[in-house]
Amino acid sequence: MLIFAHRGASGYQTENTLASMQAALDLGVEAVELDVHNVEGQLIVFHDRRLESKSTGNGLIKQKTLAELQHINIKGHPIPTLWQVLSLINGQCIVNIELKGDNTVAPMLAMYDDVISQLNFTPDQLLFSSFNHPYLAQLKQAKPHAYVAPLLGGIPLDLAKSVSDLKAYSLHIDLGFISQALIDDAHQRGAKVYVYTVDNPDDIRALQAIGVDGVFSNYPDRAKAAITTNEN
Ligand code: G3P
Ligand code: MG
Prior knowledge:
Elements: E1 2-6, H1 18-26, E2 31-39, E3 42-45, H2 66-69, E4 73-74, E5 77-78, H3 82-89, E6 94-99, H4 105-118, E7 126-130, H5 133-142, E8 147-152, H6 161-166, E9 170-174, H7 180-188, E10 192-196, H8 201-209, E11 214-217, H9 220-231
Parallel strand pairs: 1-2, 1-11, 2-6, 6-7, 7-8, 8-9, 9-10, 10-11
Antiparallel strand pairs: 2-3, 4-5
Helix pairs in contact: 1-3, 4-5, 8-9
Bound molecules: SN-glycerol-3-phosphate and magnesium ion.
């Protein structure tokens, strides 16, 4: 099972910050997940579309300027750019970049080649996911070898067909809507199945038993321990 540190090791450090990413690296994770928004053409790592519930700011993040974001913090931590986070990780683990905000494909494509050439990432260490499946199609069209992953918040009528449509590497499914038929269909289409967000060890073991390939967890060390215990 592949364990993604969800928003970094967000059970231990403030989510989607350099601190939560460093905490994930310190735990020796194989993968991290983060969320991005477009602010003045730059990708910024942050979860919500609005600033108020998770930061000292107010309003829609996409309407801010980069200068304004410099005066906003998340529990004392700066809001990082994607480039800052990727520079910190620098190829030490897989990074799942969730294209969360509007107009995130163009800025991602604009920096993609620099991430590969200037940082120590190989293309297969970058996994792009989104609930916005047309965004993934756009990204895949521009970068056919990029790994993409449709996010699902429920069970579609056509199950995992989106992975075939998108030539996706993996399917990312909400824990609340997991089904064996969906898992099996994704596997038959050649895609991995990763489930979010799973912190309970019994849940993780149950997912492993039905063939899930990985989970997103806020406590990646505990998730790892749960499956290691199971394997012994
Ligand atoms: O990418 C998995 C998961 O992060 C999707 O939901 O809301 O936590 O970004 P959310
Ligand atoms: Mg996310």
